[in-house]
Amino acid sequence: MYLDRMLEQLEFTCLQGDIHNLVTELVYDSRKIVKDCVFVCITGAVSDGHSYINEVIEKGAAAIIVEKEVELTPDVTFIRVADTRLALAFMAAAYFGHPAKKLTTVGITGTKGKTTTTYMIKSILENTGKKIGLIGTIETIIGDKVIPANNTTPESYLIQQTFAQMVEAGCECVVMEASSQGLMLNRLAGFTFDYGIFTNLEPDHIGGNEHKDFDDYLASKSKLFKQCKLALINIDDSHAEEILQGHTCSVETFGFAKDADIRATNVSLVQRPGFLGIAYQVEGLMNLAVEMNVPGKFNVYNSLCAIALCRHFGVADTEILKALESVNVKGRVELVPISNKFTLMIDYAHNAMSLKSLLSTLKEYNPKRLVCLFGCGGNRSRSRRFEMGEVSSNLADLTVVTSDNPRYEEPQDIINDIIEGVKKGMGNYVEIIDRKDAIKYCIDNAIEGDVIVLAGKGHEDYHEVKGVKHHMDERELIQDIVAGR
Q1: The domain that contains 61 carries what CATH number?
Q2: Are residues 197 and 256 located together in one domain of the fold?
Q3: Of the given ranges (114-118, 202-206, 225-229, 406-410), which has the lowest mean pLDDT?
Q4: What is the count of structural domains for the chain?
Q5: Which residues contact residue 185 at a Cβ distance below 8 angstroms, ignoring those fewer than 6 apart?
Q6: CA atoms in the 13 A half-sphere facing the CB of 138
Q7: Is 277 in the same domain as 393?
Q8: 351 vs 178: CA distance, rounded Å
């Protein structure tokens, strides 16, 4: 492809060379240079592509895209832009033939609910026979191909490459999580979403290499609504108005508020042996009665959002209800049916905020006992351990403290920190360092009516110790335990 084709939608300055230059590939990783490629210098948290310019030229790069002052090398085209990440996004879109124009694109942003909502939307639309692609925290799904995720929102080049693969696989629509980092770093630039969705906003991802403060976090999220055609907004969230500041899209709302375009009413908890769910009535632009096999008020929001979106696809009410009856999101209040005596579930809650939300939700079902098993990751904030321990002890009747990715720390040291927090609450606790043994303890000692939540691992299928990830999937551990009984 000619370089000027890739630069069509960008403002740039040609410092040297010819922009009508035939290049072989678009590259942003210096380790993947091929002869006569164009290399985009990305400034990252760990390394800076500008420092590899001499190396990539030696390897045969024909053109370099920069955002900093650099020394020019003869016989190489140098292009200066204001933001190389933004440039990469637009160049990648052109390089792959603007695949987003051949798909219906749905982007979901918010602090919580993104993952669950993407799967609900995917489930409903697939129920109508559509082929749906997905990009998110757990995995990327392209037709029958499933790729484990490294980042919630991948680099822009990978997004455009994935879109192109989805088009080739026959997908009609892609549903993806739009993380604040992905928006802030322009990974989602280069195309316009057909639909942008806002779930909710709470302080998160602030500090370190993420967001400098809450205002920065909010501003990053709000970028989605300057880059979509129609926004679906949770009107109940206190930041709904702020998230829309400067928006360039049409807006619809969902929530419990009376003025929401699509609203939930008459919410009731559904409880049967070994089963927790939720039921409610949809009113406003739609009218239907919903029952789902996932618990909690927050899943009313997630499903209501999915319903509001799927209305625009002309999905029949019966198809929506059929899909929601059996929706299952790996590691998100995922029920594991092994007994009618008690309820067992797996959830990704891995900080105090998410654990408090989860346990508060489960307490509303008035279980005989609420049992919470969790650990905390090593080489991460110690404060998280104290906070999670205290939250669990205040809300759960029994806290089972165990190990979870100790990394380069000693598991017992992490457990001791958690217990320090646990002792600030009123609940009972036990410590069992081996996670399988801890799960077995919960199952073997379950009382009729118990709700047992295995928190922290969620979709993860590994246990990281001393830099090595050992395979460990809680679903398999549960199967082994049940088989052994």
Answers
A1: 3.40.1390.10
A2: yes
A3: 202-206
A4: 3
A5: 85
A6: 21
A7: no
A8: 21
Mean local confidence (pLDDT), 207-233: 86
Q: Hey, what are 390's tokens?
A: 């205290």
Query: Among 275, 297, 325, where does a domain finish?
Result: 325
**Whole-angstrom Cα distance, residue 19 to residue 79?**
8
| Separation of alpha carbons 235 and 229, rounded Å | 18
From the number of C-beta atoms within 10 Å of its C-beta (0-12, 13-18, 19+), residue 252 rates as buried
Q: Which residues contact 66 (CB under 8 A, 6 or more apart)?
A: 15, 41, 50, 53, 78, 79, 80, 81, 84
Last residue of a domain, one of 68, 95, 122: 95
Give the integer Cα–Cα distance in Å for 111 and 109.
7
Using the predicted structure, report yes or no on whether residue 205 has a pLDDT greater than 60.
Answer: no
The residues facing 105 across adjacent strands are 174
Closest CA relative to residue 191, chosen from 176, 209, 206: 176
User: Within this chain, do residues 132 and 68 fall inside the same structural domain, yes or no?
Assistant: no
DSSP string, 304-349: HHHHHHHGGGT--HHHHHHHHHT---TTSSEE--S-SSSEEEEE--
**Residues 186, 88 share a domain:** no
State whether the Cα torsion 37-40-41-44 is positive or negative. Answer: negative
Does 232 share its domain with 348?
no
For residue 405, the domain's CATH number is 3.90.190.20
DSSP assignment string, 434-482: SHHHHHHHHHHT--TT-EEEEES-TT--EEEETTEEEE--HHHHHHHHH
For residues 321 and 428, membership in a common domain is answered with no
| Same domain flag for 311 and 343 | no
| Confidence (pLDDT) at 272 | 86
| Percentage of residues in the chain having pLDDT higher than 70 | 98
pLDDT tens for 12-70 read 999 999 999 999 999 999 999 999 999 999 998 789 999 999 999 999 999 999 999 99
Distance CA(165)–CA(341), nearest Å, equals 46
CA nearest neighbour of 21 among 45, 42, 39, 5: 5
In the structure encoding, which two tokens stand for residue 163, read together? 């879109």
Model pLDDT, residue 204: 57
Is the predicted pLDDT of residue 485 greater than 80, yes or no?
no
Residue 398 parent element (H or E): strand 398-401
Task: Note whether 268 and 370 are same-domain residues.
Answer: no
Q: Containing domain of residue 356, as a range?
A: 334-484
Among 473, 158, 121, smallest CA distance to 323 is for 121
Q: Per-residue pLDDT for 326 more than 90?
A: no
Q: Are the C-beta atoms of residues 342 and 274 closer than 8 Å to each other?
A: yes
